[in-house]
Amino acid sequence: GDSVTQMEGPVTLSEEAFLTINCTYTATGYPSLFWYVQYPGEGLQLLLKATKADDKGSNKGFEATYRKETTSFHLEKGSVQVSDSAVYFCALVNTGFQKLVFGTGTRLLVSP
Amino acid sequence: GAGVSQSPRYKVAKRGQDVALRCDPISGHVSLFWYQQALGQGPEFLTYFQNEAQLDKSGLPSDRFFAERPEGSVSTLKIQRTQQEDSAVYLCASSLTETNQPQHFGDGTRLSIL
């Protein structure tokens, strides 16, 4: 079945460092891909999405490009802030389905 | 505008008791989803409604789990004869249409079974 694999956390960075969180997926068809973020004590929030190959989703300085050839959707940010500390989830919705399939999440800790 | 609202925020129950978790989706949203999130894991799909019709319940782990959305708005997830392995955060999400729209999540109900 469909699945999403994320890099293990926690990822620990200093403020203004470059961030990459790896995400790869397995799916038949042509899934849409998402990054959700969960700040401490809060619910999941959609961060960005991409619906077809080579699309780039972006929001709040975060970017991810849908790479069909490598089945990847890595999350990047050029300069992280302490306020970016959260758990980040990569997810997909496959064609013809509505349910989200999530990875296990990657915790990001940013120190001043 | 209001987001997805879930209640209660926390629920503690003794093993064997029945529990009911409520979800108020964003007004006008057609699709409603329930997910279960174990500690340290990603959410896992339980069930999906389009209006009042339950179109997919493939993720419900056993026949002790039951969900309904009788008027196509508020939904209730019921767990009968709770077990310790039911302890988790239960997330509700809604989306505007049935075709690949972003899902908006509530803050979840944290269920602890003693």
Major sheet size, sense and barrel closure of chain A: 6 strands, mixed
Question: What structural category characterises the helix and strand content of chain A?
Answer: mainly beta
* Quaternary: heterodimer
User: Which protein chains make the most extensive interface, counting residues with beta carbons within 8 Å of the other chain's beta carbons?
Assistant: A-B, 23 and 26 residues
First CA to last CA of chain A: what distance?
41 Å
Characterize the biggest β-sheet of chain B: 7 strands, mixed
Task: Please work out how many helical segments of chain B DSSP would assign.
Answer: 0
**What series of H and E elements makes up the topology of chain A?**
EEEEEEEEEEEE
Structural class call of chain B reads: mainly beta
Poorly predicted ranges of chain A: none
Any overview of this molecule?
- The complex is a heterodimer of chains A (112) and B (114).
- Chain A has 112 residues and is mostly beta strands.
- Chain A is 0% helix and 50% strand.
- Chain A has no helices and twelve strands.
- In chain A, the strands form three sheets. In chain A, strands 2, 5, 6, 10, 11 and 12 form a six-stranded mixed β-sheet that branches.
- In chain A, strand 7 and strand 8 form a beta hairpin.
- Chain A starts with a strand and ends with a strand.
- With 114 residues, chain B is mainly beta.
- Helices cover 0% and strands 48% of the residues of chain B.
- Chain B contains no helices and eleven strands.
- In chain B, the strands form two sheets. In chain B, strands 2, 4, 5, 6, 9, 10 and 11 form a seven-stranded mixed β-sheet that branches. In chain B, strands 1-3-8-7 form a four-stranded antiparallel β-sheet, with no helix packed on it.
- In chain B, strand 4 and strand 5 form a beta hairpin.
- The chains are: A mainly beta (112), B mainly beta (114).
- Chains A and B meet through strand 5, strand 6, strand 10 and strand 11 of A and strand 4, strand 5, strand 9 and strand 10 of B.
